[in-house]
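Memo to structure team: turn this sequence into structure tokens by end of day. - J.P.
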Amino acid sequence: METQNLWKKHLRVIPDKVWEQPGLRTLILADNDLTEVPARIGSLQNLRTLDLGHNLLVTVPEEIGDIEELRDFLYLHDNRLESLPAALGKLRNLRYLNISENRFAIFPECICSMASLVELRATDNLLAELPESIGNLACLRELHLRNNALRSLPAQIAKLSELRQIDLRGNPIEYLPDALLLLPKLEKIDLRWVNTLTPPVWFSTLEDRGCLIYR
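Reply from structure team:
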């Protein structure tokens, strides 16, 4: 068996049968009132997708970072996470990460080592700023930051040369760097529900290029 779908089974604890399937490629444990994930998760070395969303997790084990094949999807959304272990930065082949609907006030630095990320969702948290190292995510195409506490973006965002979409809805944005002009593939900036930003004059340059700016 390559897929184990245990979505919404009211488990509370991950059953032993999971650890007896080392060949698993997809493991779905969403919506089970889980309060912890044991370190044994690191033994599932063939996992490509791991869904831990909609649970009650306050931590995730650093052993997830040992799953070298974890490259498709990692869902951690809708939990009670305030931080991520540095070891998750070893997931350099991961393409999709969702940490939305948690309690992150500080952006987890380990994410900036996930060099293959194509889509990052970090909506509905408490983030007040992004680290300069966000510029390391050179493959990123979509950056979703809706409903945080961001007032600006770092100039290093100019290094995200593959970025197509950035969602900033519901943030108290006061300043956007003109470095956004350097993003050759930018197609959409979503600024709806942002009432704190005076639109910079260079918005018209982006729009002339075909970039849609929702405000």
